[in-house]
Amino acid sequence: MLSRLQELRKEEETLLRLKAALHDQLNRLKVEELALQSMINSRGGDEMLSSQSASEQSQDTLVHVDNEASINQTALELSTRSHALEEEEEEEEEEESDS
Known about the structure:
Distance between the termini: 42 Å
Low-confidence stretches: none
């Protein structure tokens, strides 16, 4: 019983790290999307068309978030990201303790 509890705690920690990594990846993709939209707009693209396509893309993204097949087909680079996340968390903790 105790070993099962420890196993579940480890799984929970892993899932929380995975959630943080996915959240980070999502934020990076959003920033990249905004940068690409800005580049398109600065090249003389029609703002009306780009805003319409952006809203369509965001709706598509919402649909894909709930689509299990789409989620399973998504390639993730978590092994290096989790290490980077741990380093960032350590740096943040050091900064907070210095304050």
